[in-house]
Amino acid sequence: MSERAESIRQEFQQKLGEVKEALELEKIRVEYLGKKGHITGLLKSMKDFTAEEKKNFGRQVNLLKAEVADAIAKKTVELKELELEKEINSMGEFDVSAPLDLSRGSYHPITLVQRQCENVFKSMGFAVEDYSEIVTDYECFESLNIPKHHPARDMQDTYYLENGQLLKTQTSAAQNAIYKKYRDALVNDGIPIKAIFPGRCFRNEATDACHENTFFQMEGVMVGEDISISNLIFFMKTMLSEVFQRDIKVRLRPGFFPFVEPGFELDINCLICGGEGCPSCKHSGWLELCPCGMIHPEVLKAGGIDPEKYTGFAFGLGMTRLAMMKYGIKDIRDLNSGSLRSLSQFTDDK
Amino acid sequence: MFLSMNWISDFVDLSGLDKMQLISQFSLSTAEVESEIFYKGKDVEGVVVAQIKEVLPHPESKKLHLLKVDAGEGQFVDVVCGAPNVRVGMKTAFAKVGARLGEITIASRMLAGYPSNGMCCSEKEIGISDDHSGIMEITDDIANGTDLKSVYAIDDIIFEVDNKSVTNRPDLWGHYGIAREFAALAGRPLKEPETVDLHQYDGLPAVDMKIEDPLCQRYACLQVENINKNVSPVNMRIRLYYCGMRAINLLADITNYIMLEMGQPMHAFDSRKVGKIRIKRFDQPFRFTTLDGVERKMDEDMLMICNDNTPVAIAGIMGGLDSEIVEDTTTLTLESATFDPVSIRKTSVRLSHRTDASARYEKSLDPEMAVTAIGRFMKLLLDVDGGVKVVSSLTDEYPFHYPPVSFTFDKKFIDKYTGIDISGDSIEKILTSLQFGVARNGDDFSVTVPSWRATKDVTIKADIVEEIARIYGYDNFDVHTAKAPLYPVRVMEEKSVEDKVKDLLVKRYSLHEVHSYIWAYYDEYKALNMEVEDNVKLVGSTNVNIETLRRSIIPTQLCQIKYNTSYSADFGIFEIGRTVDGVDPETNLCREYKKLAVTLFSKTKSTEALYMELCRMLAVMADDIRHQPVTFVKKEATHSYQHPKNLNSVCCGGKEIGEIGVITPGVSKKIDKKAAIVYAELDVNLLSAVEDLGLVYEEPSRYPEIEVDLTFVADLFAPIGKAISEAKSKLLKGTKLVDVYNDEAGKSITVKLTFFDNEKTLTREEVMADVDKIIGLLENDGIKLKQ
User: Fold this and answer.
1) Are A145 and A44 contained in the same domain?
2) Separation between Cα atoms, residue A94 and residue A102, nearest integer Å
3) Does A49 share its domain with A131?
């Protein structure tokens, strides 16, 4: 190799070794491989050489050119890696110990509990129905076997309206309409009536931490050819076990409601003490949860269903009570207050 | 209602049985028993009968006496006693040293300087009455030193049944009916109550009595005289006291005793005042003073017991002051009657006067019981006072009979209802134990309902199911699911829309769901300068805050916004609730609507920004749920909370489904001086009724898109949007608002138009032809492209 080429090579090696960033490398590339670069210059210097010399020298210069190009390519990769490493190293540690802002929307607790109940019943083939809040005397009382002057009308102090209608005192007020809606399918096609109807109810009473004049219930009915008390216990136990996510013990006691016969009060084992007895259950181990029973024949008749052929059960679950029990809400008035300090906590649930 | 185990045991032998177990069985099979059970006499121990042998005044106290007491132990005991009724020879209850009375254990001690070795007790101290006026008086015939508990029934178990849980059981308003249930539950026979045979008086003259009104179902009476005793036996008084009544005098006590035992209210009149009994109503209102001294306003619907034309008692509720038994009464007339239950109830409600008698009558008492009760009364009276003389025959008018109730059914019917297999033998045994008449032929039953269950309680076959199932025990039921054919369950559209709206607003827009009341809040509205709009009202509301139903949820929601202003600088709430818009004159029914109300509150955003945010929310909602766009159409303000500007109808699917607006400053400044408050209220049913066009998928273009930005000098987007749609460009696939700004030329709006074709690469020329068309249309409207 000519001395000149050798010196260019050594000079290149030295400069390359000092390169720290891509711009410098590009400069060197131009300096050696550019049109006016040292290596191009070597090739240009051959114009006076003999053919034999040209061939020999040319081969050497081309080898050098290849060597330089290769070294620059390698260096390019090296520099890119260095740069990435530098970027990686430049990132600081994030403070994951800092409190996170979790503020977001929320559902009303009644919506959450209602959806849980609805889902259980939907999974068992029940339709979910809705009904008006203002109903007629017929819907709320007459059709439910509660004639005028019946003491049951006293038990529930009713908000009557100027036009003779009333704010429904119980979700049972929808029963008659539900029977009429589904009776044809029952009678003609043998499809049992299976429906739940959650809704808001009203009773004229003074409010305190345990009493509200506006509250939610969920009524459920099932009517078919062989629906029995045994079925009623099964469905109530299953639904409550699903809602509370544990095995719930239920028991029935006789209870009097004009729209069922036999009528029951359904108790569940106390969720707080598990049935041992505690102040919450007045040391009885049981909590009274929901009235239920076999639908009274007169109520079926009013709904256009033959009580000789069909039987059915009905229950009225207190959704407000259930939500309070489930979430440990102590003051019932918080539910209708619109107070976001309470309500915004109900972001989501099962 | 308090119930005594001792009293129940008069009629059914429960010896050897676990009483607590029976009570809890009663609770599960008959009526709920309150959790607190009272063990009477449990804390009384070592109290004996003793006689006072000597009474000396205490030298230093006017009240105290120094006694020598014979407690049957040979030596007399020194006792210091403060009772005013001490006298030599008197027998009383004496708590010996070591005796227990509640928390106290009696010990020897010095009292005002003198030794006292025991205590003479008042009835209150023993817990058998509330009489604390002096120490107890005990009859002479009982030997000194006798344990008081062996003489009197102080030990008893008292349990309470809530009256509400037996409203449908007229037979359970006395111990005898309760005992019948215990007999059935325990499987032991029920004893008949001991009565006097009233036929022995058949020869005596009848009482002058006549029922002149069909509201009286039965009226039985008997006259007695020569009553010499005035004080009831101790055991009777203890029972009355344990069951929550005070002893008064012999006649009143027996009357109350019969009511608590048989469930039959009775009344005793002074015969001098009631010689000609007539049961009737009056034509006109009048005033009447009852024996509690209260003068009451009576009206013509109220049934009265009269002496000819003078009222002497309100039938079934309370006697009159003038005909009450007094000191010099010698002859009295006993009444045992049955009245129409609805009439008694109405009268007692109208007079606001409920008595133990009216509470029973309104449950539909069994008229058969009326005469038995007189026989029982006479038995109790004669036991105490053998000198009593009956001076009339039993005078009994019985014009109204409940129809006898009987059913036939087979075991299959019971199986169907219960869902389990209760044997024919069990069915027969249970019904017989409840004293139903049962005739059985294999699985076929013919059952007669006893009179005390047939007045309203057991009237249909399903009632028989309850009798069998409850005594069989619900705890013994085999529980299983129902067999039913499977069919798809249709989801109510409205319900699924509701769920989607809630999810969208909570999950995507971080709003909070709240609930509020259906009526307007007067005070809160007033505080926010909002008027309560006239609407349907509640009848007889005592609270003005609960009087007028709301026409819109927005005002109630603004009250809740006000309540929460310190919760956060920016928040939004929503509710799906009901509103009422007057009464439909044709149907006379309220027009009730299900509305979605949303209110946004912000201290950081401009009203316009907040308003546009709400517009977007509604548009996304409509697109998610109905896959249709929403449009906004200007409307006029009609409510006190609406800002007159920027009030728009929200339309979807060609229908108005609600409105969006700003809260007027007069109201919003009362909530927060600076915050922006905007609202929207949609009709959920109208939204559900909008056709869902469904999700439409468009294949993305495989050819490049061309975007053109155009800036127009215009106040509103509306004409631009109109021109774009009128140009009907097939290549235009998207329009986006890029910028809105103001400069010396006025307001400018920049839109980005996106063009593409799924078949080929578009040329600039093709696109510009459509763009020029749009520009041309706008120029015709006087809207120029900004250079």
Assistant:
1) no
2) 18
3) no
